[in-house]
Write a structure and sequence with these properties.
The radius of gyration is 24 Å and the shape is globular. The chain contains ten helices and 19 strands. An eight-stranded mixed beta sheet has the order 6-18-19-17-16-13-14-15, with helices on both faces. A five-stranded mixed beta barrel has the order 1-2-3-5-4. It has a four-stranded antiparallel beta sheet with strand order 8-7-9-10, with helices on one face. The protein has three domains: about 70 residues, Nucleic acid-binding proteins (OB fold (Dihydrolipoamide Acetyltransferase, E2P), Beta Barrel), CATH 2.40.50.140; about 200 residues, Vaccinia Virus protein VP39 (Rossmann fold, 3-Layer(aba) Sandwich), CATH 3.40.50; about 110 residues, no CATH class. Helix 1 runs parallel beside helix 10, helix 5 runs parallel beside helix 6 and helix 9 packs across helix 10. It is α/β, with parallel strands linked by helices. The structure holds S-adenosylmethionine.
Amino acid sequence: MNSHGGREHPPAAAPTADELAPGVEIELDIGPVAHGGHCVARHDGRVIFVRLALPGERALVRITEARPGSFCRGEAIAVRSADPRRVDAPCSHFGPGGCGGCDFQHAAPALQRELKGAVVAEQLRRLAGLDIPVEVEALPGGEFGWRSRVRWALDPDGRIGPRAVRSHRVVPISERQPCLIATPEITAAVDVLDVPPWVRRAAPRPPRASRAKGPERRGGRRAAASALPEVLLARAADGAVTPTWPGRGAPESPVLTEHAAGQDFVVAADGFWQPHRAAADVLADAVAEALTGIDLAGRVVWDLYGGVGLFTAVLADAVGPDGAVVCVESDERAAALAADNLAGHPGVGVRAADVRTVLPELDPDVAAVVLDPPRSGAGPGVCADIAARRPDVIVYVACDPAALARDTAALLAGGYRLAGLRAFDTFPQTHHVECVARFVPASS
Ligand SMILES: C[S@@+](CC[C@H](N)C(=O)[O-])C[C@H]1O[C@@H](n2cnc3c(N)ncnc32)[C@H](O)[C@@H]1O
């Protein structure tokens, strides 16, 4: 799709809301951006989430999904009136029906960040009742080639890559047609990747056409596709790429070494580490900044959802040799690696446990809590529990604006106020954004 209107479309009577069905094409005025990488449009009272469009544009939209009595999804296939900051996407995999990994390649980088800031602000307004402007900061290193971790699928024909948007179809990545957000080393690794025997044995084959027909056959193909083997490719600080094939019979993944916040961290190749090459350092700095102004020397602090200890290290510096940091991480391997990574800090203790169950066992006298939960958020129970301990500061690192907004509402209800928020474009070209929110007691 280009930015000048694309192909001609014969005038036709506009369909009614009930006639919107997959394949129907309709011209729409595109409304605001929404969480999830699309914009909102309306037709005849029905909401349509439109990918590949920008707020204020007029676009020809092809409906891709229509739930009876509910919203539709669609993709802009031609733009009649374009936002001046629309750009031609550089990646050959990006476009209608294409790769599902990127959402905003058609927007200039500054506009991408504006869209993400609008989504964070809208979630905080809707779910937490806060009306604040949100500016998203760019990370060093440029808009492409930043992604040091990918989880891609292997299809029965041996192709490896991300899945197409809302589909199990594999978008094949090769050096000729690379993934532009992945580091070049990751694309290069795909071309020479060996598929281990246990993956080949486990890989489903689609049913033979002669044995399955009609919907049964399509269902079989869908089932086979959803169970495609996956490979995790992790590029470490030294540039080496380690593949891990999860699944039954797989050996334990190797470890690799990352560097951030002034020290090395050993992490499992299939364990959590920030995918953007600069993100761990940027977020560690933002957490350190959110802790400033509060004297934590010699006090007790918590790092919840601690991974291999990135923010534990920041907290250990803040409390100094006489303080204590409790790192809680449910993944046993990550917790063990965190203990090793932080072995030089005598005040650090690591609990391999679920935050939800371990909180009542922790010393209630806590001066600061850093939490960095998964996409689903910490939840109201954990937030209420943290607020009930009355720490001087709560620093919430969030990869999902809706979860951040829900948990913000719980912290506000627990007697805290949002005292600062920074947002970072840790996932350029996608709709994802990372926030670091600082909460202090409402009375302070
Ligand atoms: C977004 S990662 C953050 C890791 C770390 N803070 C970092 O920046 O590298 C979330 C971590 O929380 C862990 N986790 C998920 N649910 C958990 C729970 N209920 N209790 C404790 N840890 C959990 C995951 O294993 C993962 O390591």
